[in-house]
Amino acid sequence: MKDTLHIGGIELENRLFTGTGKFADHNQMKEAIEKSNSQVVTVALRRVDLEAAEEDILSYLPKNVILLPNTSGARTAEEAIRIARLARACGMGNWVKIEVIRDQKYLLPDNEETIKATEVLAKEGFIVLPYMSPDLMAAKKLEDAGAAAVMPLGSPIGSNRGIKMKEMIQILINECNVPIIVDAGIGRPSDAALAMEMGASAVLVNTAIACADNPVEMAVAFDLAVKAGRKAYLSGLGPVSTTANASSPLTGFLR
Amino acid sequence: MKDTLHIGGIELENRLFTGTGKFADHNQMKEAIEKSNSQVVTVALRRVDLEAAEEDILSYLPKNVILLPNTSGARTAEEAIRIARLARACGMGNWVKIEVIRDQKYLLPDNEETIKATEVLAKEGFIVLPYMSPDLMAAKKLEDAGAAAVMPLGSPIGSNRGIKMKEMIQILINECNVPIIVDAGIGRPSDAALAMEMGASAVLVNTAIACADNPVEMAVAFDLAVKAGRKAYLSGLGPVSTTANASSPLTGFLR
Amino acid sequence: MKDTLHIGGIELENRLFTGTGKFADHNQMKEAIEKSNSQVVTVALRRVDLEAAEEDILSYLPKNVILLPNTSGARTAEEAIRIARLARACGMGNWVKIEVIRDQKYLLPDNEETIKATEVLAKEGFIVLPYMSPDLMAAKKLEDAGAAAVMPLGSPIGSNRGIKMKEMIQILINECNVPIIVDAGIGRPSDAALAMEMGASAVLVNTAIACADNPVEMAVAFDLAVKAGRKAYLSGLGPVSTTANASSPLTGFLR
Amino acid sequence: MKDTLHIGGIELENRLFTGTGKFADHNQMKEAIEKSNSQVVTVALRRVDLEAAEEDILSYLPKNVILLPNTSGARTAEEAIRIARLARACGMGNWVKIEVIRDQKYLLPDNEETIKATEVLAKEGFIVLPYMSPDLMAAKKLEDAGAAAVMPLGSPIGSNRGIKMKEMIQILINECNVPIIVDAGIGRPSDAALAMEMGASAVLVNTAIACADNPVEMAVAFDLAVKAGRKAYLSGLGPVSTTANASSPLTGFLR
Prior knowledge:
The first copy, chain A, is α/β, with parallel strands linked by helices. Helices cover 35% and strands 15% of the residues of chain A.
């Protein structure tokens, strides 16, 4: 049986979402995204040059990926809504990742404004994936507001610090009905595998790939790790104990 | 360029070592080991029935794997040495994993006896892989004694607790000249990936595979995770920061 | 120079806040609170029997403590506001700990409703201490709404799991202008000391004291730990390094 | 009932051992040690100027402390033995902290040599406290060799990294019959409290006190933290749970 992720009427086979920021150049980005096997790629609308088609970042993305324009730069629900509508008007599809951020130091999102933007955009037919600060009640409200998935941060964007908010993310996974996609802070493939083992539906990784010494190979590493973590989740992890449990028989047969 | 691990004159492409304990039956074990792509498999000599060839565990192992008989059951260097010699005499090859354990609760090894056994067996031409309690000075002595690799425990055998001895294992990886193979305690693919990201040369996983709900699929998961972690190590992990680093440009282009 | 905490015009010398729930009986509670040296004690209005004065929980509290009625049981801002007003009308003073909780499994607060209640009650002259899910933007809004301090949870109420939300709580401590008081989840004195070392202004501990085998002695332990952590914070913790730094001279004087 | 620690026929009331290295000057050291209430103070024999009595470090130590000369600088059991004998011959008493260290980067001890030195010195009537790399089998051998207590490291000396070897130290505490004194790496009072909560009999702290901005106040903080942790251990920590447990009644009495 195929294990697929359904979001917005689309059936995804790959659970690694990627981003387009921080790569050395467009060609490196293109190759890394291709090698990652990612099917959903987020891009800041700001980066899309709507006139200079030649150099447009979009032309470097694999043909079959789902574009996930994000509202990076938005400081309020209203601004996020405007960016989302503009992206759709420009032909970037109806998926949108809501980012409402005023904090410039940690880039932490404003859950309240995010909920408002989600509600409006979901009603307008967008497939809304909100970036959020992990908090169960906010996640439930995003769910109620029509979010197609909820994207809690593991730690601050681009920090590579790993899943520091693990406790709350596990609660979101346990209690929410929409897919949980861990976004931000994932710094290593082991972090991505851990998120998947916890039951996350997908992860979004950008900085850890783009800022590796070898982004293309790191993209492959994350693809493998996400698959490993997902497979482990589906295969039922064994029990954890305080003391040891012999793998090999201990009876001393020589005595 | 191929990334291979050299131990005892053998060039290994796969860095996941597996074990034969705790599987529901021999067929399940056989399938899990095959799917893991493991090239080195440890087996307690006690399990090998030297007479009933038909049901012999060895007949269920893939033809091309390197057999790593372990001295499970040994309580002293002397006993470990006898088991190793017996294994070789029985045609099980010249690789041996030294386990000298008297503690029945946590199954923690005796480093001092392990060093003694290593010295004797290495001189006799064995390829010696000693299981040990992570301790830099003991690891250096094992190296001096002729160990082909050193196998520190992550946490007690079969506990699935993960790499609790991370601090010391990292020091071993930094300071030793022989390969470090993390053995015992690895409970999830993310643990295995982490060990590899830290620079371990390989990991040995048995319980976490054998005690999963679906051991065969879990074996695949570990294979992927080890590859992911190794690839990440080779690709150069990006820097970790306390504050955020924007992946997407933040200049509000709408304002 | 005295190190005091100013909240609502009051100067507190002790930074351990306590609660009144889960004790075996009122006398045990009374003794534990006395021994804790706590100057602020939270009590659910529900517990206060406004008629049976004799058995009233309030009569067991030390005379000089500041009563911090909480709105336990409130599921909306409106309900929290009603409870707060009722408490004040009953002569319980003008401090109030806002708790707005609908989640019955993890008892996680609703930040959005909490902000609303804080705004209304602060305007009515209450000294408002809101219990919240750690989230920087919500904390800033509580600050703007007039909160006298902000009380982020370390982990779910009564879980004794410790400061699992450490990453975000540290950010709150760094970025907020009002005192941060870590509430919920503190399970051991070392957790309380850690919160204070991080720069928290105070901690609230209830379950870990009340559910200890010896609540009275555990109250003393928490008092000491909070003082230790605060003193460490003020004394400037030394630098952390990856390698060692000799405490004793290493030059071998015997050689 | 008094809670005291018995080592070498001495009854100690205070469980914080301190050191004499790294202070700005002898007066600061003197004041910090006094304020710490420490009853056992370690000093490298190298520091003791046997001729210039005036400036001798020993003259700055409180009169009633037990001197714990350490063998800092020793690289073998033999050297440690010589230093210990010399210290005793100089009138420094019969307590000795064995340190056998060849690793200059992490200052990690050699357990095997340490066991040898312990055996010899214990037979000569010394009260031997060996510094060791946490390892159950080595600890049991130290016990058998006559150690009065065993001193596992939490993390490298002077690193302030905390109790990174927690897993193995807990096993030592559970399984050994002699007192376990956590030494090295303790960076904050919360680390010291944690060690005591785990059941350690004492802790030794030097760098974290001496390298604080205010060593004298930090010494007080550690004294309080050790007392807090010990008291918590004796008072029986409450149970830890995954979900919440209400401290306050949740029945909405307003509805």
